[in-house]
Design a protein that fits this description.
three-stranded antiparallel β-sheet; Putative Zn-binding protein involved in type VI secretion; single chain
Length: about 325
């Protein structure tokens, strides 16, 4: 007999259950099931609940219990003490509030968010990207992006629009993410650009200056890491019913390669390397050079000046 899981429950990786049944609640909080989502603090990505009680089906899926596992091998930790078992009987639970099943109202059928009576609406906690309300609204549907931007802002990073001619980039020294002014009236594209740069700021990667080719490969891997981060956020947004921030304006073949790498490896160094191959012949938004040439020329410049070690700075 194990306590069942509700939205807000924790995991052994420090994660939090973020989705649950749209129909069934306990004390007003959605009950989680196999297939529902968890934001993993350790893995820094959204994972999936993989197990549940197959004999206790809630809205088409097994109810999740204390001790069940996620796709990153974390164990679920219940935050309430109502129990689920094969012969579950609501009336037999003396000290736990019963499950509340679907009502006829549309809001009860199609919503799975909740706010306690004494809390402010969750929207008040959403980050302000400084890229406009439309971008903020899209970002609000990605718990991972919310957490990463909050972490960056707490570390004194700033997000802003910059001149179109300057492109979109991450400045590690000044702790700035600059998105081209060109995207100001294009929220989906601005969001895609933002996720790429947050990927750079969050996953800085390792730089190899042992040779020119090694340096280029390591920087392309960094670009791949940022691209995979965008794909991860895109998947999270789509899962939460938000718009597609990549498909409308991305090269279909490139997007297919990136999504395939993410599906095959997850947010992993192997995926970064696979995605990095896409970037070699793409042009940078800052100089218009191909990435291979951009990083190769940078290596040559610093090597000629005898300052290769400065390339170890992430910029």
């Amino acid at each position: 007999m194990a306590a069942y899981i509700t939205v807000g429950a924790k995991t052994s990786h420090g994660g939090t259950v973020i989705s649950g049944s749209p129909h069934t609640t306990h004390n007003g909080i959605p009950v989680a099931r196999k297939g529902d989502k968890v934001i993993c603090k350790k893995c820094k990505k959204v994972t999936t609940i993989l197990s549940g009680d197959a004999s206790f089906i809630v809205d088409g899926a097994p109810i999740a219990r204390d001790g069940d596992v996620t796709s990153c091998d974390a164990k679920l930790i219940a935050i309430q003490q109502a129990f689920a078992e094969s012969d579950f009987d609501v009336g037999s639970i003396a000290q736990a509030a019963p499950l509340v099943f679907a009502k006829s109202e549309p809001d009860a059928l199609f919503g799975n968010s909740f706010v306690e009576d004494d809390e402010e609406p969750i929207e008040d906690d959403y980050v302000i990207t400084n890229l406009g309300d439309d971008v903020d609204k899209i970002a609000a549907d990605s718990p991972t992006l919310q957490e990463n931007i909050k972490d960056l802002q707490e570390a004194d990073w700033n997000i802003m629009y910059g001149p179109d001619s300057g492109g979109t980039y991450t400045n590690y020294e000044d702790r700035e993410i600059v998105v081209s002014e060109y995207y100001r009236d294009k929220p989906a594209m601005a969001m895609h650009a933002l996720t790429h740069e947050v990927g750079h700021a969050t996953y800085q990667g390792e730089i190899d200056i042992s040779s020119r080719d090694a340096y280029i490969d390591s920087k392309l891997k960094g670009e791949g890491g940022a691209a995979i981060y965008s794909v991860m956020i895109r998947e999270e947004l789509l899962d939460n019913g938000a718009i597609d921030i990549m498909k409308p304006h991305s090269d279909p073949n490139e997007l297919k390669t990136l999504v395939s790498a993410y599906e095959k490896y997850g947010d992993d160094h192997s995926a970064w390397s696979e995605a990095g191959k896409v970037y070699g012949n793409r042009k940078t938004s800052t100089t218009g050079e191909k990435y291979n040439d951009f990083y190769g020329n940078r290596y040559d410049e610093y090597e000629n000046e005898g300052n290769l070690n400065e390339l170890l700075l992430n910029f």
